[in-house]
Design brief:
Length: about 280
């Protein structure tokens, strides 16, 4: 009988799943069966033994020369009866192992909360909130109207004097004469009080708007094209009207006020845009 423990050798037998197990761990129903044959012979009795192999001896082989490897296994033997137990892993230890700081877990939560506040403010905050601005924008879009716009450059004007407080009456009459000149030259039933004019301090140009006459509302682009063809004639008519402004001598910087580079276009404007103009 081979010794079970001698020179680091153990008796092993085939177990489940291809593992070689120590003999004492193999269930009895899986152990190989051994046989002995008794018999007599000749003129006398004798004992004949035939023995089978009881297993194989597991031995340490040279590197990469064996057929099996060692795997550590643990078997539950009951509470308090073994040498090993399952314990909880501390969160701090886990963070140190994988390098993930604990506070990183809160970043998505904080981001979601912030987005929620922003959406709420955009939809419901009063006053100058995003929601109010959005509603205002929609309202302005609904109030848009189509206008014919005339941009023109004004020359021979002493703008420093023109914008002095003492010349407020001159500025008012100046704007009135621009309206008169536009209405006369455009004709087609356009009246001076239907023309809107904007003058911007620090610039040497003027802008005039008017809604297309009712008879021309379906041909706005065509009307604008026709007016552009007559741009020089219209500019001369506006200049002549400006010369009729009472007190023009105080703000004129040359022999005659000039109007040039008149450009006609079709635009859409809301009430808020027109309210900013000096009408």
């Amino acid at each position: 009988m081979p010794a079970q423990h001698q020179n680091n050798l153990r008796t092993v037998l085939p177990g489940e799943d291809g593992y070689m197990l120590p003999e004492d761990e193999v269930p009895s129903n899986m152990r190989p069966q051994f046989s002995s044959d008794l018999g007599g012979g000749g003129g006398g009795g004798g004992l004949c033994c035939s023995t089978g192999s009881r297993g194989k001896i597991q031995a340490m082989m040279e590197t990469d020369a064996g057929d099996y490897i060692v795997e550590t296994r643990y078997r539950h033997v009951g509470m308090g009866r073994g040498k090993f137990s399952l314990v909880d892993i501390e969160q701090g230890d886990k963070d140190e192992e994988d390098g993930t700081p604990c506070w990183c877990l809160w970043v998505p939560v904080v981001a979601v909360v912030l987005v929620g506040f922003l959406v709420f403010g955009w939809l419901f905050m009063p006053g100058d909130s995003w929601g109010a601005k959005s509603q205002s924008t929609s309202s302005n879009e609904a109030d848009l109207k189509t206008y014919i716009q005339m941009d023109m450059e004004l020359g021979a004007v002493k703008w420093e004097t023109f914008w002095e407080e003492s010349e407020a009456n001159v500025r008012e009459r100046f704007i009135t004469e621009i309206k008169e000149g536009v209405a006369i030259k455009v004709a087609r039933g356009l009246r001076p009080n239907e023309v809107l004019v904007d003058l911007v301090e620090g610039r040497d140009d003027a802008i005039a708007w008017f809604e297309p006459p009712q008879s021309r509302t379906t041909n706005v682009e065509k009307l604008a094209s026709q007016l552009q063809d007559d741009a020089n004639e219209i500019a001369d008519g506006i200049a002549q009207s400006l010369e009729m402004t009472t007190g023009i001598d105080y703000v004129r910087g040359g022999p005659m006020i000039t109007v040039s580079n008149l450009r006609v276009s079709v635009v859409e404007k809301g009430a808020a845009d027109l309210a900013e103009a000096k009408l």
